[in-house]
Amino acid sequence: MGRIAAPFGVKGWARIQPDTAEAQSLLAYKTWWVESASGWREVAVAEARVQGRDLVARLGGCDDRDAAAALRGMAVAVPREALPRAGDGEYYWVDMIGLAVVNGDAREFGRISGILQTGANDVLVVAGERERLIPFIAGVVREVDLASGVVRVEWDADY
Question: Which residues contact 44 (CB under 8 A, 6 or more apart)?
């Protein structure tokens, strides 16, 4: 859902760079899971607010700048069961990573290794014999079949 970027102020607040479509999405959760070298741990969110494109938050047990600095680089998540159900034609990016990408000629291009947010539309990063960038738009993506692990696209092998 995001990553802790840096301390914010001197009272234990941290700047969070969200990986969500809208920064405020994380504000709906009273607890977050924070990943560290020793694994994931649940942390209460004492206070949080939107600050520009990011969030700033004070997490439970984080009372000064040094404690916030120790969190730098750590991933922030919420349990899957806490997320709202995706609507028709909507997908969580995490569910798409690793799916095979196949065109209309049954040529497999590789697997989705990432998704870029460009502003105009999202772009699938497909790792195969070479990296391909395929726009995630209706005219190109014909089907996303999570059950079979395949994304079918209308995309020429020469692109």
Answer: 30, 31, 59, 60
What single string gives the DSSP state of each residue in 64-127?
A: SHHHHHTTTT-EEE--GGGSPPP-TT---HHHHTT-EEEETT--EEEEEEEEEE-SS-EEEEEE
Q: Report which of 119, 121, 146 is spatially closest to residue 135, judged by C-alpha positions.
A: 121
Residue 157's pLDDT band (boundaries 50, 70, 90)? confident
Structure tokens belonging to residue 44: 């209460």
DSSP per-residue string spanning 9-65? TTTTEEEEEE-SSSGGGGGG-SEEEEEETTEEEEEEEEEEEEETTEEEEEETT--SH
Neighbouring CB atoms inside 10 A of 31's CB total: 14
Chain mean pLDDT for the chain: 92
- Give the total residue count for the chain: 159
For the record, the structure tokens of 17 come out as 């760079």
Partnered with residue 110 across adjacent β-strands are 101
Contact (Cβ atoms closer than 8 angstroms) between residue 24 and residue 64: no
